[in-house]
Every structure is written in structure tokens, then in C-alpha cells.
Amino acid sequence: MKLNFCSLSSGSSGNCYYLGNEYNGILIDAGIPAGAIRKFLKDKGISMQAIMGVLVTHNHTDHIRGLELLTRKNNLPVFTTHKIWKSIISRQNLISGITVHEIGLQQEFHLAGFNIEAFPVSHDAPETVGFHIWSEDFKITIATDLGHICQTSAPYLKAANLLVLESNYDEEMLMNGSYPHFLKARILSDHGHLGNDQCSAFLADIVGENLRHICLAHLSNKNNTPDLALQTLQQTFAEKGINTNGQLQISILNRNLPSEVISLI
Description:
The protein is an alpha/beta fold. It has nine helices and 14 strands. It has one domain: Metallo-beta-lactamase, Chain A (4-Layer Sandwich).
């Protein structure tokens, strides 16, 4: 079965990702306006009627901005943990007319022909999860907000054929930038965000036959650039003598525009 993955937006201004097959699809987060999600999907030839639900990683606005309108208008169910959903309701005074399926951490469930597990990651929200999604032929892991890679999350990242992983900041840009000290400390903490160096070091450790495609995600607008994120990864690979021989594809996900559709066979 052919699978298609596409980032509709990836960054602190909004996050939304699509995964689908020939028949159905799902969204991971809805952090951009509902109208933009519908437009971007239409531009990619994806019908809203094919979307079977929205997986939600945590309650920060850049992951749920369009959630209420999108799900209510299109009668889409939401899949997230009890703790995350409770925090969304309390944060946004939500939500009427939305169907919510509460999922357990590290407990398999099924949607749109996919097997899915939510796993905990370290971030400064009441609860934050990544998602490991697989079919018969392919495994995809998405983790876009995490201060460090813990023992629980690492196996899900290592198992992926396509890995969407945060590469949020360049440490030199962050430390020399205009952010106040408290915000720099938050970003650098174990409950903040994953930087280029951390991301690249982890990826260098797990490169192997399983990993076929890396998507660097959630890049900061002020403390990173796509070129820096890619250069850091390439330099880390070179320092460790890693030559992928053209077998590993690397994408840098855009903050404001959809990526190209990545076809997974």
C-alpha cells in the first residue's frame, strides 16, 4: 500500500501534518487556521472527506489553533490523552460538539487503516506526546516538541522508516539573540526544545537500514535557519564517518508552507 506524508506547516507559528493512503488519511495536530488546512489539502488533491480524525500532541496554541473549527465543521473526531484533552478545555474554554476519543499512553489503537501509539515526550505542557504510526510496510514517528530524548521515546524514534524530528534552534544563534534569559533557559531545558546539535547527534547514532527519510521539523524563525539545521546534520554525519550512499533522504520542513508530498512505498 502506498502512503503519502506531507507537512502543511511546521514551526512555532503552527503545526499540522498529513498522513494517508489511497483511501483515507489522518492529521497530526491542527495548529494553523482551519481554512488554511482545507486549502492546503485541496491544493495537494486531498479531500477533507478522506480525513478520518486528528491526533493531538499537546495543548500549545501552535498545535491546536484550528482544531475546534476544523473538527466541528467537518465532523472529525479528535484522538488524544485524557490529560491533554482536559488541558485543552481548560486553556481555551472549549469545546462543544466535538467527538473525542481518549487514548492511553503506549497503547495501540487503530484509525484509517493505521496502527498508532502515543508515547510521552519531555516538554513544558501538562502532557505532550509523539506518535508512532505504522502499516504493514512502513513505520513513521513524529516528535516535534521535546527538550531531550528520553529512554521511553527513543525506541519509537529508532524504529521509524520516516522520522519527523524537531531541530528547533542553533545554540549560538539562540544565546546571541534577543530572547530574554528566562526564555533562552526554557528552550534549552530538558522540557524545552531539541536543538540542531542534539537532533543531529541522535540521528547519527540511529542511522541504519531502517531509516529511509528524515524530516527536520519545528525550526525556530529567530534562532535557526534551514541551511544551519542541514549543515549541522551533514557535519555530524561527516565527523562520525557516516556515508548514506544516497539511500537516506533529508527534508527540512517549512514553517509556513506545505512540503512536497513524500510517497512511502
